[in-house]
């Protein structure tokens, strides 16, 4: 009773749960434009995931797998029946792929392995441990990975985490009821996964205990990729006060989902500003022909470096006026960091300080 | 239309939400709470005390109020300048004893008694003023010390002269008249207090001295910076306060003729309570005579009524203290939160439903293209926000900028520019009259004309205030665009009466008919409102028939035609009802049609929000202004249409590199010149096939 009264009071005054305040981009997430200014850019239409295996950089774009040629061009090496939903390097060499129709298969110089068919839909990420066990995240049980905006606006909580042991045919559900499981990574104490719509990273221990290791992020966390002493967290879209507000306006939100085309919703996206039918915000009005970098934006590019305890160290960003939006995957190998910016359909390769984080 | 939509529409049609913000933004709202409290006090005590409204009680109350009111006015003057005067009670007592001694013991004639008494008070005030104003001592401590010293002085005078004063019986008719006489049935002291109140009101609101006092109280440092002699002003407020307090003492002396030790004791607390209760801010700068009068009446009624109800004097002080505490708390909270509250409630969206937007895909007259791509930039990076562009007979370009200049780019190559005139304000729409004078709508100022010799003339800056309007809509806030009829009448639009120039897009969140079209007639210099309740009327362009003009309503996405002469005079017809974007300026094209600039495009998400005013209202309250959902004014285009409403061509800058937002365009000798209110360039686009000799000047005023 008291909770209900407090809830309605909160929604009247815009406090508590109804508040639309966001954590500032400060500390490790202090705004910068290093994704735009540094690194080598190699465009690849449709790129979403990356892997470094067998001495080369592989990139998944829709149904095809590409390999980077030494002359900086992309070469298609394989095409599959369905879109590649996730891609990961395997410790044994080669890669593991998940397709959007639920198939899980290995790929390497030795050729494509026998696919294991699963009933999983909406796969967002996968991770392989030393013993060959696969950890798989599914964003939602109601919406496919491409329909992530609808799942967010409906405040979906149907994400799940699955484990597929090397010898088994069918995966086993480890956790459910997640608000979009966007990425997973194995760690010493179990696995760490990102719960995107609740803006946090969770650690699941083998005993099944859930623990928030990093919460209240200012952007939606996505795929995680482990490095020697920590991890890279790709954040595919920034949070915005206006979106938080729309999420708390069920009547408007419902009508928007039914009456407005998806591309023109008030919702985060991989790349915004593509069409004049997209909603504009006050601060994003161009002044003297320029969009200001601090303008409110429905898209941005953020890669966050985490330490061994999953705490943030520093970040690489692309701001409202940048050209590396919608980062879906970042992998590090041999001192190079490869970043897939799905919004701008480009793979950026950084090295030196940007990877080690000495200077900001 | 669904039932919910219909209900929402009725709800927003019949409940004028916007009035709340407008009322709160008025200055007199500070008096509303004290007036309500006065009504409450009157009704409570009127009900509790029998005969409260009887003539006896009223006359008794009034006579006491006359003296008390003067003391509260004295305190109000000091508070207006940001100070406080605790010595008013003692000065009142000093005035009383001085008057009695001068008339009873020294036996002086009445005028000298009055002058002497007032001089005593003025002297006390001067001491306060020098200490507080010039030596910058703390007002509270200083006047507390003066209170004690003057009280001691009164006591020692009493010791020496109590007996002679009590024995004396002044033989002077005017003296008794001051105490007990009436003018037009009103006690003399009340007349004096009312005259003082009226005088104070006039001084504070109408004279330089009063403005100085309020300025010093509002912000001492700013007052100093603009050259107001702050120290002298503060000193003089104390002198005025002392004089008035002594005058009150004089009236008291003539009424009772008593020289007691307890006269004026505790009066400063009562006066302070009255002043604050009336709404005079302790911080200074927000005081008025009306507030002092209201506050003193409330306190007077409370004190007297409690005495009549038989409460002891201790209870009386307790009540006064409590009321003072509450009043101070309310004063502080109100002052601190008023602006916050006002900013939350001022924007009041209403229900609006636009017709379905036509597509911009292939096959539509609005189909996307890159026809604006070959545009040349003039003054790139050197001009800040050319809203409108116009060319004269010598092909020079005139544009306004954000800092209030009219800039002239010189023909033929437009690489040189000069400030043609500095007008201040924000120059918006422009037109040439038949003599070649440039008539300009200036946001924040009104309608002006700049002649060829660069002399600037104000044509008009106000129209008749509309009946029942809460905010003063007589002054022109946002004159936007104009055009001139063949007979010389100037028709111009005022986009909104609720917002200032720099926040014009916020008006879209309301989408209410806040704008109007006004006519200035140079033949008799009159200004009158022609059309009201328009949704951000913007561009205006004369039709070729000499009887009508076209005007654009930006947030309503429509073009209408208004007949000011001829058989259809007074009628409005819609020409284009469903534009895909927000129309801005309209101008003539060489083929007899019209150019129209779309400042921005409609977005489905915002169109949906228009049907949900509650959503927009909550957004304005909860979300930071920079994050507000806006109409998309980052993409615009230019289109050409005819009087039947048919669109013939559309020119787009698809990537928005040169002209993301277009507010105006002007055809001149085969070229189109393009301006944008937040752009940094003027565009020049060759128009293949257009008449290379056509100019706006000849189209309007013929060959000269």
UniProtKB/TrEMBL annotation, chain A:
Q: Which organism is it from?
A: Falsigemmobacter faecalis
The name of this protein is Strictosidine synthase
The opening ranks of the lineage are: Bacteria, Pseudomonadati, Pseudomonadota, Alphaproteobacteria, Rhodobacterales
Q: Which Gene3D superfamilies match?
A: TolB, C-terminal domain
Automatic annotation (TrEMBL), chain B:
Membrane topology, from the record: Multi-pass membrane protein
Q: How is this protein annotated for GO cellular component?
A: plasma membrane
CDD domains in UniProt = TM_PBP1_transp_AraH_like
- List all membrane-crossing ranges: 32-53, 65-81, 88-106, 112-132, 139-163, 183-204, 230-252, 258-277, 313-334
SUPFAM superfamilies in UniProt? Calcium-dependent phosphotriesterase (SSF63829)
Where found?
Cell membrane
A Pfam family of this chain: SSL_N
Question: Where is it mainly found?
Answer: membrane
Q: Which UniProt keywords apply?
A: Cell inner membrane, Cell membrane, Membrane, Transmembrane, Transmembrane helix, Transport
GO MF, one annotated term: transmembrane transporter activity
What InterPro entries does the entry give? 6-blade_b-propeller_TolB-like, ABC_transp_permease, Strictosidine_synth_cons-reg
Domain Strictosidine synthase conserved region per the UniProt entry, residue ranges: 480-566
Respond yes or no to whether keyword Iron is given for this record: no
- For whether the record's keyword set contains Ribosomal protein, the answer is no
Residues making up the signal peptide according to the UniProt record: none
Recorded protein name is ABC transporter permease
